[in-house]
Design goal:
- The termini are far apart.
- The protein has about 250 residues and is an alpha+beta fold.
- The protein has helices at about 25-40, 85-95, 150-155, 175-180, 210-245; strands at about 1-10, 15, 55, 70-75, 80-85, 100-105, 110-115, 130, 140-145, 160, 165-170, 185-195, 200.
- The protein contains five helices and 13 strands.
């Protein structure tokens, strides 16, 4: 059994809220509500009266987000995962018991935020390495190495958060294997813990983004993006060929 952090890969671009002078007054009010809901540490946004806000690309010098099955939205970590209609349909049996979909408007695309609401008591606080929060009992402000109870993970949700850091989406092999089996693109799974080797040491230092380390990270991201673009072009060619064969 393994535990992973679940995100959308930043190498494939990021989307942002589309604040625009053309936005209708009702939508502007809803966007303010959105920002308040998502900035509140202890609050999950309400779906009653939900008005799907427009989203779009960032600044001109940023790489355009690729329309993959998982796309990053520039929000707090617990609400930054956008899923395509295909991903939602294929993963619904694993996602819906543990969260909900919050639709957004991205012109020409069908996407929704996945908000994970499953809080699983599966981590082992006694084995976690890092810095505890002074203001939130039972929480960590920084985790350097995670620890989990293997027996609890056996019955854990496919995707979940933990009380020690409720803003990180986690999953077991069940969810990761489902993503791979359906050939869904754009997900990033960062190993956190394995039953065989225990917790993975997490580099929380800002130095990982600077100097030579940062340069190598940027090169790796460009290579992943280039490889993904090749995959998308191959799929487009295959899609054009199929109608001709039928």
């Amino acid at each position: 059994m393994n535990v992973y952090r679940v995100d959308a890969d930043l190498a494939y671009g990021t989307l942002v809220f589309a604040h625009s002078p053309k936005t209708q007054s009702g939508e502007e009010a809803q966007l303010r509500i959105w920002n308040k809901e998502f900035s509140d540490w202890d609050h999950h946004c309400e779906t009653v009266g939900w008005l799907a806000p427009p989203i779009g690309y960032g600044t001109r010098n940023q790489a355009r987000a690729l329309p993959l099955d998982a796309v990053r939205l520039a929000l707090g970590p617990e609400h930054n995962l956008l899923l395509s209609a295909r991903a939602r349909a294929l993963l619904s049996p694993l996602l819906l018991p543990n969260g909900r979909f919050l639709p957004v408007r991205w012109e020409g695309h069908d996407y929704a935020i996945f908000e994970c609401t499953a809080l699983a008591d599966v981590a082992d606080p006694g084995g976690i390495e890092g810095e505890r929060s002074e203001y939130r009992p039972g929480c960590w402000t920084r985790v350097d190495r995670w620890s989990f109870h293997p027996d609890r993970l056996a019955t854990a949700p496919a995707i979940f958060t933990v009380p020690q850091d409720p803003f990180i989406r986690m999953c077991t092999d069940v969810f990761r294997d489902a993503v791979a089996a359906h050939d869904l693109l754009g997900f990033a799974f960062k190993p956190l813990w394995s039953e065989a080797d225990g917790g993975v040491l997490i580099d929380n230092s800002p130095g990982q983004f600077m100097g030579e380390a940062g340069r190598q990270m940027a090169i790796a991201a460009k290579e992943r993006r280039r490889a993904m673009l090749a995959i998308l072009k191959a799929r487009e060619r295959q899609a054009r060929i199929k109608p001709q064969q039928s």
